[in-house]
UniProtKB/TrEMBL annotation:
Monomer. It is an enzyme of class 2 (transferase). CDD domains: NK. It comes from Falsiruegeria mediterranea M17. The lineage of its organism: Bacteria, Pseudomonadati, Pseudomonadota, Alphaproteobacteria, Rhodobacterales. This is tRNA dimethylallyltransferase. Substrate binds at residues 22-27. Catalyzes the transfer of a dimethylallyl group onto the adenine at position 37 in tRNAs that read codons beginning with uridine, leading to the formation of N6-(dimethylallyl)adenosine (i(6)A).
């Protein structure tokens, strides 16, 4: 069923932002808009940038990519460092390109950098990152200032580690850097901002079905192909479903256990996304499948 009926008329000259939790159907809406109204679909999901995954991260299929142009999907090597700053630099040319950008994904931080601006924080020295990689999330969190902890997802290790690295490398908190953020590249009022606000039970059922579909489509083969390069400390190898299926392939877990744990992890992740979007995207157009 099309969700276009829940949207207001779409001006020809406005970029479209589509955010939502995993498995909510946001990519299908982006494709429908691109096919009907034109535009280039741009990825705003941190798990879909790596070239080693297509199925396990639910990237657009080859058939979907043939229907409309897609950008910033599967374009980064599995072991490359990538941040919201990298994404912002890569998305910038598309904001003034010949085709309307339709920016879709589940990484709220990417949208924030676009519509709120991004602090000009110096790069993290390798030795600081190496120290952070060896610390637990709890240890990293314990050293952060209260203001920063109110602004980040404290259950997301990558966000906690980033805040710790900034504090350690610069001597200033992430919150302090954020308070000096320059103007945004794309103010919210210049866009058509859409966020999926979905029922929990409906989404959990979709998540379970989708993981089984991924297995049917060859997710296990995709993970097997990365076995020799697998590094659990890399962001690419932390994509939900990857550690679980790798544990099955190495004999540390049954396939049923891997399926269950991946499904639970996805549900927990979706819950954090829904909470984040509801708190920070109050002015967006809300749609419900």
């Amino acid at each position: 069923m099309s969700l276009l009926g829940q949207l207001p008329p779409i001006p020809d000259n406005r970029p479209i932002l589509i955010a939502g939790p995993t498995a909510s159907g946001k990519s299908a809406l982006a494709l429908e808009i691109a096919v009907r109204h034109g535009g280039v679909i741009i990825n705003a999901d941190a798990s879909q940038i790596y070239d080693c995954w297509r199925i396990i991260t639910a990237c657009p299929s080859a058939e979907e990519e043939a229907q409309a142009p897609h950008r910033l999907y599967r374009h980064i090597p599995y072991d490359a460092r990538y941040s919201a700053g990298h994404w912002l630099r890569e998305v910038t040319p598309y904001l003034t390109g010949p085709e309307r950008p339709i920016i879709v994904g589940g990484t709220g931080l990417y949208f924030n950098t676009l519509i709120q601006g991004m602090a000009q924080i110096p790069a993290t020295p390798p030795e600081v990152r190496q120290r952070a990689d060896q610390m637990t999330r709890e240890a990293l969190l314990a050293e952060l200032d209260p203001e920063t902890t109110t602004r980040i997802d404290t259950l997301n290790r990558a966000r906690v580690q980033r805040a710790w690295e900034v504090l350690t490398a610069t001597g200033r908190s992430l919150a302090a850097w954020q308070d000096e953020t320059p103007p945004p590249l794309l103010p919210l009022e210049q866009t058509v901002p859409v966020v999926f606000d979905v029922d929990k039970a409906w989404l959990n059922e979709r998540i379970a079905r989708r993981f089984d579909l991924m297995l049917d489509m060859g997710a296990l083969d995709e993970v097997e192909a990365m076995r020799d390069r697998y590094d659990p400390t890399l962001p690419s190898c932390k994509a939900i479903g990857v550690p679980e299926l790798m544990a099955y392939l190495t004999g540390d877990m049954t396939l049923d256990e891997a399926r269950e744990r991946a499904t639970i992890a996805t549900r927990q992740f979706a819950k954090r996304q829904r909470t984040w979007f509801r708190a920070r995207m109050r002015d967006w157009i809300r749609i419900s499948p």
